[in-house]
Amino acid sequence: MAKIIAVTNQKGGVGKTTTTINLAAGLAMADMRVLVIDTDAQANCSSGLGVVKGSTKPSLYDSLIRSLPLVEILQDTELDTLKIAPADRNLSGAVVEMLELPDREFLLKRLLEPVLGNFDFVLIDSPPSLSILTLNGLVAANSVLIPIQCEYFALEGLADLFDTLARVRGAFNPGLSVQGILLTMYDERTNLSAQVRDELKSHFADKLLDTVIPRNVRLAEAPSFGKPVLLYDIRSKGAESYLRLAKEILNHEKKGIR
Predict the structure, then answer these.
(1) CA dist 204 to 8, 46, 67, Å?
(2) What residues form DSSP beta bridges with 122?
(3) pLDDT tens for residues 160-217?
(4) What is the pTM of this model?
(5) Count of CB atoms within 10 A of residue 198's CB?
(6) Is the pLDDT of residue 238 over 90?
(7) 8 Å CB contact between 5 and 144
(8) Coil, helix or strand for 241?
(9) What letters, b where the CB count within 10 A reaches 16 and e where it falls short, cover 172-187?
(10) How far apart are CA 189 and CA 185, in angstroms?
(11) Cα–Cα distance measured from residue 213 to residue 211, given in angstroms and rounded to the nearest whole number
(12) What is the pLDDT of residue 146?
């Protein structure tokens, strides 16, 4: 049965989509069967994995609102064991339409159930806000991966996010755990990056992942080519860091850490 990880942070610009794309690719390169669910109407995760924007093919909207089975919307990527349930701009309307549906918080969880046996990991890319789509991801997930940018305001809002997770556990998903906090856009030349890392260590030592994602030009370039950085430039520091992250996640799972 697949491990479902929601990549979430209510703050935007922290590397959620970049992390979803490249962690998925790293896991696929380790011979894992991976499914990415793009729940953000901007569809950056979809385009970053090669899905053409404006495509007439069905998207996650059709599954959530029109009850199309998830298996019917899945698209292939350049990696044989990596599939994606793409987003499109219609998801903006889904935020409103879902509010009128019964058990709206569990729609994604129920869509996933028939396909979980086909995958080892499911990664959910969340919107940068606490919307009904974000909530659906948290309800469906086993754990949450929290990317945090190495900047002054990074720590602000983290307490709110943990409060949100506590509320989701209490109301909908008691088994939801924190997979880890991931430092992104780390610049070893600045004191600020080191200060943010030290601050997180002092407060969340048990949740802070060993892997750190650096600022990297190739990592920033890859999405414009519709590729994970692992396919765009596997020798880059960005690619190396996401391969380490995939290995760290796999090691955690082997040890039974949730």
Answers:
(1) 17, 32, 40
(2) 4, 35
(3) 889 999 999 999 999 999 999 999 987 777 777 788 788 888 878 889 999 999 989 9
(4) 0.94
(5) 10
(6) yes
(7) yes
(8) helix
(9) bbeebebbbbbbbbbe
(10) 12
(11) 7
(12) 96
